[in-house]
Amino acid sequence: MSLSIGQTAPDFTSKDQDGNPVTLSDYRGKKVVLYFYPKDSTPGCTAQACNLRDNHEALTEAGYVILGISPDSEKRHQNFINKNELPFTLISDEDKSVHELYGTWQLKKFMGREYMGTVRTTFIIDENGVIENIIEKVKTKEHTAQIL
Predict the structure, then answer these.
(1) Catalytic residue list contains 50
(2) pLDDT given for residue 38 in this prediction
(3) Catalytic position from the list 24, 45, 124, 147
(4) Which stretches of the chain drop beneath a pLDDT of 70?
């Protein structure tokens, strides 16, 4: 499925790092940064999460709620948050159902090998649940600047 700007963001419910359900539509009235990333504690994903952490205040002041999502387990998310002192929610999508809704689970190529994996993508969702922007070429160390 390919989403585009102006479409309503697909609603979902999945578990956060503490096992609590997170439902996207519960965030109506707020701007949401929903970022899909491949794996906790890898160099690129850590750089991206730390960039968002270091600029969390600016993002919050601009009215954004940050939700990170990957196929990692709740426990891995907890470790990643604790290790990097992340001030935002990470969502576990082990069955990749949310990835499928957003079209971020795709065939990837690395060193001549093909495999299914997460395509690093960020969706900016407005207060009405409509996709305002899609960042496909995420710069992990400058991600906040791309959002703002």
Answers:
(1) no
(2) 97
(3) 45
(4) 1
